[in-house]
Amino acid sequence: MSNVPFVVECLGKYMDARLTARRKTDQWTIRPLRGGTDLGVVKWFGRWRQYAFYPASGTIFNPDCMDEISQFARGLSIKHRVMASKVRRDQV
Questions:
Q1: For 51-58, which contacts have Cβ atoms below 8 Å and span 24 or more sequence positions?
Q2: H/E/C letters for each residue in the chain?
Q3: Is residue 18 part of a domain?
Q4: CA atoms within 13 Å, Cβ hemisphere of 55
Q5: Over the stretch 77-86, which tens digit does the pLDDT of each residue have?
Q6: What are the distances in angstroms from CA 76 to CA 1, 9, 34, 59, 81?
Q7: Residue 2 belongs to some domain of the structure
Q8: Residue 1, pLDDT score
Q9: Residue 73: domain span
């Protein structure tokens, strides 16, 4: 059994994000609300030092869906930076 808590965040009218891995950085699977194949994954991209969206092969997104995914990834990146700065301050 996985030790990842069941966390789901709604991404607009058509998608949600499910926490699928919890390591140093989290990994979220993007899924359609009405079921079906996973649309992709939002996870940390080290070279850019931010969360990025890795779309599943053969998926197509309209501008609204891309905006929702982008806002979600941006929010995760901001949260990560805030938490990292708190850890650094606590170590001083």
A1: 51/25, 51/76, 51/77, 51/80
A2: CCCCCCCEEEECCCEEEEEEEECCCEEEEEEECCCCCCCEEEEEECCCCEEEEEECCCCCCCHHHHHHHHHHHHHHHHHHHHHHHHHHHHHC
A3: yes
A4: 10
A5: 999 888 878 7
A6: 26, 12, 24, 22, 9
A7: no
A8: 44
A9: 8-91
Kindly give, in sequence order, each residue whose CB lies less than 8 Å from that of residue 42, ignoring residues fewer than 6 positions away. Answer: 17, 27, 28, 30, 51, 52, 53, 54, 69, 72, 73, 76
What the block records as the tokens of 14 is 């058509």
Residue 3 lies in a domain: no
- Supply the pLDDT for residue 33: 93
The residues facing 30 across adjacent strands are 17, 40
17: Cα separation from own chain's centroid: 7
pLDDT value for 67? 97
Q: How many domains does the chain divide into?
A: 1
pLDDT < 70: residue spans in the chain: 1-3, 88, 91-92
